[in-house]
Amino acid sequence: MSKNQELSIKVDGVDVIGEIIYRSEADIAIRITKPYQGLTNRCHIPYFSRPIHSFLTDYGDKMAENLLKYLYELGWYMEKNRIFIKLQFSLHFYDENFSNWESQDRFFNNTFPFIVPVGTREEVIEMLKG
User: pLDDT by residue (tens digit) across 64-76?
Assistant: First the structure.
């Protein structure tokens, strides 16, 4: 795999398509394009682990698939729990101050049954604002 290469996996019988938008020895970033859009996820390998792992190898291919699967699961959860998420969103951001880290932490910790990475949080907030 290389940068901007399409990636396709099946999750629970659903075709999930994304693309690698950045890839180096230490970093990888994925964008989902089907069945959801607007979400990205990334991962970093610290310098002391690079002699063991690199995203330019098969390890990177597997990580890309795992990141894409996570984005699918996040999109699926948001679709299936849209009303609950919108209610939580309005409760935690009633003043429309989306940059408040404490409000963001409370919102994500109380709304999602899994961790939403910081970079992906901004995209989720943008999707919910729109």
Answer: 999 999 999 999 9
Q: Is 76 exposed, middle or buried (0-12, 13-18, 19+ CB in 10 A)?
A: middle
- Domain segments of the chain: what residues? 6-79, 81-129
- Encode pLDDT of 34-49 as tens digits: 999 999 999 999 988 8
Cross-strand partners of 41: 30
Distance CA 35, CA 16 (A): 6
**pLDDT grade for 2, boundaries at 50, 70 and 90:** low
81: tokens are 């729990």
